[in-house]
Amino acid sequence: MNLKLRITKHYSSDSYIKPKHIRFAIIDVDRSPDYPINFVCNLPKSIKLNERQPSNFSKTFGDKKMQVARNLLNAALENEDDVEIKAEIEARLKTLPN
After folding, report:
1. What is the pTM of this model?
2. Tens digits of residue pLDDT in 63-91
3. Which residue in 16, 66, 74, 95 has its CB near the most CB atoms, within 10 A?
4. How would you write 10-43 as a 3-class SS string?
């Protein structure tokens, strides 16, 4: 699998200046070049080692979930130009347990 993050901003209907939230979708470029065909799962805002109800991300990547998340976020940080998205990526990297 050749995984990458597809990061999109979603705005509320009352304010198009500040995004309401930023979504991180994990895609597999080997599957297809087109979204949503290459969609794997969403990257959760917080990732925990032990979850009562595991997210699709945790189910998909299992024990390697922290490493996968860190690698995807670091790769996205290197390629991103948008200030708001960079700040969100850095915030998510800080919340990842070591």
Report:
1. 0.88
2. 999 999 999 999 999 999 999 999 999 99
3. 66
4. EEECCEEEEEEEEEEEEEECCCCCCCCCCEEEEC
